[in-house]
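Operator note (shift B, R.M.): manual run for Acyl-CoA dehydrogenase requested after the automated queue skipped it. Running by hand, logging everything below so the morning shift can see what happened. Input copied straight from the record, untouched. If output looks odd, do not overwrite the archive copy; leave it for review.
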Amino acid sequence: MTPSRLLSSLGGVDGRSQRADESLERRQLRELTRQFVQRDVLPYLADWERAGEVPRTPHATAAELGLLGVGFPEAVGGSGGDLLDSLLVTEELIRAGGSSGLVAALFTHGIALPHIVAAWQDAGRPEPTSDLGELVDRYVRPTLAGRRIGALGITEPDGGSDVAGLRTSARRDGDHYVVNGTKTYLTSGVRADFVTTAVRTGPAGPGGISLLVIDKDAPGCTVDRRLDKLGWHCSDTAELSFVDVRVPVRNRVGAENAGFVALMRQFATERLSLATQAYATAWRCLDLTLAWCRDRHTFGRPLADRQVVRHRLAEMATRTAAAQAFVTQVAVRAATAGAPATGPLAGEAAMAKNAAVSACDWVVDQAVQLHGGYGYLRDAEVERHYRDARILGIGGGTTEIMNEIIAKGMGI
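Run finished. Output pasted below as returned.
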């Protein structure tokens, strides 16, 4: 089902969505996302934050609207569209009043499924009776339909960003792998039904890594801890242990020992998503702060009447617009390439992420400052964005790792 067919029944869109560089279809997609947030998210988001997780109902609702499948091929149960459509949904979900934590929780399949879909496409879209075809039917389709939740397991307690050094082992035993190890910082790891997991099937280094899809209810797979965090409160995060977990060989994603390359191919897309979350958060905080400065009166005048405040708001807008322009430029190049962003595009994605995160960090800080004491209260939306924004320079590869990628692309 294509986005155009999903959205054809929608009416007009408001002025903010009437962008010269967007097609009618994308303006309608933006409006659909905004309506979803206003109707199915905002009345409940505070409760989800307190509960520490998002329930399954919004997954089903977003799937019914076609939002959950945006950016995934119709052939695997998606709604069609490309990377730009997916990033548009991410941006609008935040700008309409959601949060980056909500993006992480509701669209966690954006990091759990792409490796399976890419392997299926690389293999020439094999029949459902093949191993990859079965993976698509058992995991991709029901997840995009809102019936299952997936997570991605890479990071280990003592490994951090050193993907090539991971130690969770998968020993071949007939038609199964026997998995032992621990994964941490799993987004949606508590709620997830399955985990696309990076394991070591070969020698040390990047050449010995494979990807296995592991069912969370498999004997020996345990959620050791629900991890409490500074921000992203509505996005559950877990530490998982695997003790002699038997995983069918047919659950391997692609060839044995080819997992590292598969992971690297998808990282740039994840980083562009995080960059989009960063500039969208900055725009949302600017919108909130503009309204506050117009309405808040001190000494008989609105805050916005003061030059120092106006100039601060102007700088917030400038940094955010520049970040969005850079991220969009890289995203367009990645979407046009029609393949995962590798080579020079990987370096540009790293630059875009760092630039957007830097802008967001400064803007959310200024937003809290201009809100004064109210900005420090949990009742203030800018307070939530302030906390949520801090993870954006860590998730998907830290700022420092991004700089290493950029430097490597410069030949240094």
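Quick read of the result: Strands lie at 150-153, 169-173, 176-187, 194-200, 209-215, 221-226, 237-248, 297-298, 301-302. The CA atoms of residues 251 and 325 lie 40 Å apart.
Leaving this for review. - R.M.
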